[in-house]
Structures are given as C-alpha cells and as structure tokens.
Write a structure and sequence with these properties.
Shape of chain A: elongated
Structural class of chain A: mainly alpha
Strand order of the largest sheet of chain B: 9-1-11-10
Oligomer: heterodimer
CATH class of the domain at 57-141 and 195-257 in chain B: Alpha Beta
Distance between the termini of chain B: 66 Å
Number of strands of chain A: 0
Radius of gyration of chain A: 35 Å
CATH topology of the domain at 57-141 and 195-257 in chain B: Alpha-Beta Plaits
Number of domains of chain A: 3
Order of helices and strands of chain A: HHHHHHHHHH
Largest interface: A-B, 54 and 74 residues
Structural class of chain B: alpha+beta
Largest sheet of chain B: 4 strands, mixed
Number of helices of chain B: 9
Number of helices of chain A: 10
Strand content of chain A: under 5%
Largest sheet of chain A: none
Strand content of chain B: 15-25%
CATH architecture of the domain at 57-141 and 195-257 in chain B: 2-Layer Sandwich
Helix content of chain B: 25-40%
Distance between the termini of chain A: 105 Å
Chain lengths: 242, 264
C-alpha cells in the first residue's frame, strides 16, 4: 500500500514537472501579461514602419505650396493622395523623390462622371471634356478654381431632369415651381430652393376654374386630397397618367 | 490517512516525501524565470513606442459618411501601400463597394479591385439609386473572430483595436470564417490571418490611419470614442449613426452615417 502511494507520488511529481516545463517552453513569455494574448505582439505591430508621413510633414519644407494649397478647394485633399506615401522622402529628401501624376487618367479617379458619386461633386465626362489634353494644362491641382456652376439645373440634378424630360411636365422650367436663390449655385446645401407650399399653386393649372388649356387634368381643390399639399401624393417630376 | 504519520523503516513517510519533493519544480521554475525580466525589458526598449503612450487611455473608433464617398479608391490604395498588403485583387484590408439599386428590386454590389482603379461605367437606365460604401474591419467590441481563435493569436487591445499576432497565428482560418464582414484574409506568403489594424503603428505615433489621411472628401473620420470633443464625437452627434449587421450583436466600432438600408 505505502509503496503504491510513493510510486503514485513519483508519477504525479513527474507529471507536475512535465506540466511546469511544458508550460514554460510552450507558452510565450509575454502571454497573459495584459490579456489572453502575447503582449509582445502589440509591440511588434506598433514597431512597424509608417509609409504615409501625414500632411503635417510636408509643410516644414514645401511651405509655399502648402500655403497655396491650404487656401483653395483642395485644402482637405492631403498631399499624399496624389503624390503617394512620403515617409521615405521625409527621411531622405534628395535621394527619394515623389511622383506627381501628370497624366490625364489620374484626375478622373475622383472627377470622372459616375452616377454613384454624391450629387454636386464636381465631375466631368473624360471622353468629351477636352479630349487628350492633360488636366494640368488648364487646372492647377494645388489651387483649383472654383468650378463654374453650370446654368442648367440638370448638371447636378441629372436624375430629376431626365425623369422630367419624358414626363407631361417636360416643358415646365424648374424655376417655375422652385424659387432658387443665386446662393444655391455657390453653396447648394445652405441655400435650398423652395417647393410649392400651397395647393393653390398647382391649382393655377389643375384647378377646375383655371384658365389653362383644356386637356390638362382638373381637380376640385375643395374636395380633392384633404389636407395634403399636391406633391405629398403626386410626383410632379413624373406625374402619373390619367 | 491512516498511515500518514507513521515513520517508515529505512525510508520517508508520505508527508516528508511531499515536503521534500514539492520544492523541486518550484525551484526549477524560479531558476527558469530568473533570466526573464532582462529579456522583457529589452523587448520593451526595442519597441519604437514612445513612453508617453498608454493604451488604456484610448478608445479608438472610425466614422464613415457614405454620402461623402466618391469611390476614388485612394483609401484602398493607401492601405495596401502602408501595410504591404499583397497587390492581388482579392487581398484587402479596406475596400469600396458600389451599390446599384435597380428598378426591378435587385441590388447589384460590386468592388472591382477594391475600387483602386476606379469603377466601370454603369448603365443608368433602370437604376433607382446608386452609391459607394467603404468597408473595412469593424473592430468589433464583441468580436466573433477573437472568440473562435483556438490559440489566442487574435485579440482586442486595451485601446479597442482587434489585432492579429503574426508569430502566434497557426493559419487555421477559423477567424476568416467567423468574421461576418468578410474583413479577414489569409496572407499568401506568411499563411497567417491578416486584417485592418486601424494602422496601429500610426496610432501610437499620434497619426491617423492611412485611409483617413488620404480620403479627399473626409468620408472617413477617426478619433477617440469617449473624448469630450473630437472629429468623431462631432460626427456622431450630428449624424444618425448606424452599424453594419447590428442584429449580430458584434458592437462594431466603425460607425456609418447616411447608410442605405440595402447595405449589408
């Protein structure tokens, strides 16, 4: 009996020793220091080299061009967007030079027309816009001119314009219904065009006693549509057929 | 216990045996541990981490305003350059998706080369609406990828970034399967899992992630989540904030504004 116990103790002792040794050699040193992971891994990842120096780095040498750039519409476009990662250039300014994309294909990455882009973002059709000319012959990318706002509403509101063009309202001008301030073309979000605020506005053409051509559909404003303004039910850019 | 106290002729009793044998592994352990502190100090000195940086004082998050994204792909390009992501068109830490909602009710999502070389023209007929959505690792506060890692090679840091330990990862791909956002991939050379780190090596130097740095329209906003005032807190105050796949309860730290209902 005692012999068995001592043998068992030895076996357990050996197992314990094996466990301690295995733990020591298999578990990395910094494992569990912060959490259930190797703390040294965080340092290893943190020690990786940066490639993009950040926009602050450019100003210390290229003072003038940064000043010009920061005054104009591209002020929020960091230097490294076009010139590429600059950390190596910051460390060795003469040996490593940064490219400047001068070819025509680069600017349309942002400014080529794409219906998925937000309305109002300056876009051109690269096929028809001064074909084959590099963009920088007319535009200074560091100080782009504020784009000339087109006269036509369709330049920005293309979707509405195309819809309206095939509707019964095709001949109505946009400004016939929307009062538009001049400021709307400069800061479109801050000065918004109006929408007709009363039922009487549509009634000028569609009311029973309106003096408009006879083929225009009529409704009795007194009984039709309860308390709603017309455009809350009807879509004036593409009115439904009778 | 009947024989515990009895002395044994010519040998040890159990109590003595235990008493004498217990210190053996302990001293061994103590001896092995003795060499460690120096090594640890050395490792800390090697890291280029400035001593002022304290991970526990930060809590990073990103905001994405989809209505500002122009789909230029500069973020995906900068990410690949900054983090040495393989150039093949199926390894991305961040990428841009184009959503095209059609009049027939179908939604077409595409991301040719992550948007780096731009998007092909779309046929504008039959489209209800179309827009771009930048995607990346959502740095979940409750990350499924960390839960499934069998070796503890992926983890959340104290400043709220989910990282992968390249040396410890065994390349089993559990985390790639578990990620509901498809944000992970297996690096073709190291055969370890890879993902967005919020450019952790930039954060500790006080810089913003490379994608945020180069976004020309400020569609991406980065900052401290709990700061009283930061670009991110302002962004979150002034927009209606949504996250991707909220029903999965992953609690993403990438917050979207003006997100379309079609986005998954």
């Amino acid at each position: 009996m005692r012999q068995q116990i001592s043998r068992l103790s030895i076996v357990f002792g050996v197992l314990l020793l094996a466990l301690v040794l295995a733990r020591h050699f298999l578990i990395p040193k910094s494992f569990g220091k912060i959490g259930h992971y190797r703390a040294a891994a965080v340092d290893a990842i943190a020690a990786r080299k940066i490639k993009y120096a950040g926009h602050q780095a450019c100003a210390s040498c290229h003072e003038e061009i940064v000043k010009l750039h920061d005054d104009r519409r591209h002020r929020n476009v960091a230097c490294e967007v076009c010139h590429g990662p600059a950390a190596a250039h910051v460390e060795a300014p003469t040996e490593i030079r940064l490219p400047a994309p001068k070819q025509r294909g680069y600017c349309p990455l942002c400014h080529g027309y794409d219906p998925s882009r937000p309305t109002g973002f300056p876009q051109i059709d690269p096929v028809s816009h001064n074909p084959l000319k590099p963009c920088i012959t007319c535009h200074n990318p560091h100080a782009p001119e504020t784009p000339h706002t087109p006269e036509e509403c369709s330049a920005c509101h293309g979707e509405i314009a195309r819809t309206k063009a095939v509707s019964h309202h095709a001949l109505l001008p946009c400004t016939g219904c929307h009062e538009t301030q001049k400021q709307h073309k400069i800061t479109p979000q801050l000065s918004r065009p109006s929408k007709p605020a009363s039922r009487a506005f549509c009634g000028q053409c569609h009311g029973v006693d309106a003096s408009s051509p006879k083929e225009i559909p009529r409704v009795d404003l007194a009984t039709h549509g309860e308390r709603y303004v017309c455009w809350q039910c009807h879509y004036p850019h593409f009115p439904e057929l009778k | 216990m009947e024989s515990a106290g009895e002395p044994e002729a010519g040998g040890l009793d159990r109590r003595d045996f235990l008493r004498k044998s217990l210190p053996v592994p302990l001293t061994l352990l103590a001896l092995l541990r003795a060499g460690e502190p120096e090594a640890e100090k050395k490792a800390e000195g090697d890291a280029s981490k400035p001593p002022a940086y304290k991970a526990s004082e930060h809590n990073y998050a990103m905001g994405i305003d989809t209505s500002r994204c122009i789909g230029c792909g500069r973020c995906a390009e900068a990410c690949k350059a900054e983090n040495d992501v393989p150039r093949e068109p199926f390894y991305f830490r961040t990428w841009i998706e184009r959503y095209v909602v059609q009049t027939n009710g179908e939604t077409v999502v595409s991301s040719p080369n992550g948007g780096i070389a731009g998007f092909p023209p779309v046929n504008e007929t039959g489209i209800v609406r179309t827009f771009f959505v930048p995607k990346l690792c959502n740095q979940c506060a409750n990350p499924p990828c960390v839960q499934v890692c069998p070796v503890g090679a992926t983890f959340t840091t104290q400043d709220g970034v989910v990282l992968v330990d390249q040396e410890y990862c065994i390349g089993c791909r559990y985390c790639i399967q578990a990620c509901p956002y498809g944000a992970r991939f297996l690096h073709p050379v190291t055969h370890t899992a890879e993902k967005c780190t919020f450019c952790y090596h930039r954060l500790i130097k006080g810089l913003v992630p490379a994608c945020v740095e180069v976004c020309p329209t400020q569609a991406r906003i980065f900052g401290e989540l709990k700061a009283r005032s930061s670009p991110l807190t302002r962004f979150m105050r002034l927009h209606e904030i949504q996250v991707l796949k909220p029903h999965l309860n992953t609690e993403p730290r990438v917050y979207y504004a003006n997100l379309d209902g079609e986005v998954r």
